Amino acid sequence: MDLTTAQALVAWLVAQRSETLDGAEVPLFPAAFAIFGHGNVLGLGTALHERRDELPVWRGHTEQGMALAAVGYAKATHRRQVGVATSSIGPGALNMVTAAGVAHANRLPLLLLPGDTFTGRAPDPVLQQVEHFGDATATVNDAFRAVSRYFDRITRPEQLMATLPQVARVLTDPADAGPVTLALPQDVQAETFDFPDALFAPVLHRVPRPRPDLRALREAAAVLRTARRPLLIVGGGVRYSGAGPQAVEFAERHGIPITETTAGRTLVPHDHPLHAGPLGITGSASANALAADADLVLAVGTRLQDFTTASWTVFAPDIRLVTVNAARFDAVKHGALSIVGDAAATLTELDEQLPGWTAPADWSGRAAVLRETWDAGIDKLRAPTPGKPSYAQVVGIVNELSAPEDYVMTASGGLPGELIGGWRAAGGAPSMDVEYGFSCMGYELAGAWGAAMAHRPGLVTTLLGDGSYLMLNSELFSAAFAGHPFVAVVCDNDGYAVIARLQEGQGGAAFNNQYPDCRTTLADPPRVDFAAHAAALGCSIFAASSTDQFRTAYAEARAAAVATSRPAVVVVRTRAGDWTDAGAWWEVGVPQYLSGRGEYETSKPVQLRYARGR
Q: How much is the pTM?
């Protein structure tokens, strides 16, 4: 088929299929997000127009925002579908680098197609081209190398035949999933080549389930049998494998308390008797207390990020660590006894190695007792109080009014701690996306657009602070224009309150976080009218400044989003100084001369330096 490079690429995208967790066949690339400019409007833009009925194209309003929407789409479909984002050269391309970082940190698939400068170089230097004095081959798109799982620059049309199988491999590989960047020089996009028909034959991509090594299974089972106080941690890999039910059944058969990471949140029913709660700094005191007493941790599908491990202080220093992960890179961390394999397959086969073995009943029973104490504390934090509500009260009302099939999101600031630690899930299908791998301010609205268009059951609600809203809000209009409804709860507490807490809590002066502590030449500086701004972007608007008002406003917003097929925004004034505290420690750089340094030194627990599972 005599096609341009751009036509061939789009034809290949259309031909790729994917299998969902429940066995349905769907497009691997269900949506493309585009902002056209010189560098992609004629080559790739024309090709996308020709196949627009087979690959829907949605217009973004910031390149970062539309690429983050693609990330949110991938998370909402449990990595079974991949969003595509394309931009012009120069600033348009560089605006997507942050989204690539989000996808890379969270191991989420994303396909980026930035335009690039001419390979022929005849018109150089062109508009938006950055010239490197010592390297004529370098362009701004080389910035993507640090945040891409796979990077290629297509300088000849026929290169597609070699690179596209690698693109599909990375985007569907449970061990290697992440962003792929194909830089597309604008002259090459328009060049033609006689491509073989076979390149465009439909392909169904089934995510592989690699089986674990039998010797590693037997070794892990032998170690588990010696444990008196085992703890099971379920992470994002359990979610993407669809192994939530297997993890719960494994825990039930062996009496092992369960805790969740941020990415594994909502896999376990909140009131399950073995559920200890979420683990770590933004987790729960109940799970952290069990972790401190555990003599063995079985960590499944998690990269054990510092907020999960409390900078590696949440466990006893002599803990034995057994890990299960599809990626060997993650499995071997901290010298763990590692099992490399799919979460569902490994839990099934590990279970077969442990007939009749259970943890002592007194240890198994501690999970529910500790979690009930944690729940009682959360109930007190959620109880109505006069005046502006706290974050915990806002989260409690959203939790109460949400249906089990609904989807809740956040990303940065103080809300992850409230949502992870306080949310009570029905269990079953994962129903939460907390982007806390990169903690990207602005993901909350853009990612919600992607999640809302992923055709999940239920309604998407995203929670964010005023700081995140100001960082990136343009995709509210994208969603309103496209007709993708969700509810956005904007908690306005006058600035970057959670960073002010960190700053002042460690002895720093209040500086440049809350508005009263920021420099201005005005005696009466302006404030943002978030409701008016969101209304101007096409959203339904509701406002609240008390818990009762918020309950009413959120219920009305839910109804409005469904009725209008547009986002509904609830702006709620919240208190800046109330936080849920899981009692965990976090490694931060406290200068020697600050007053908080002494407490930092004395309160620092013993960190786990190197643990071997044996």
A: 0.96
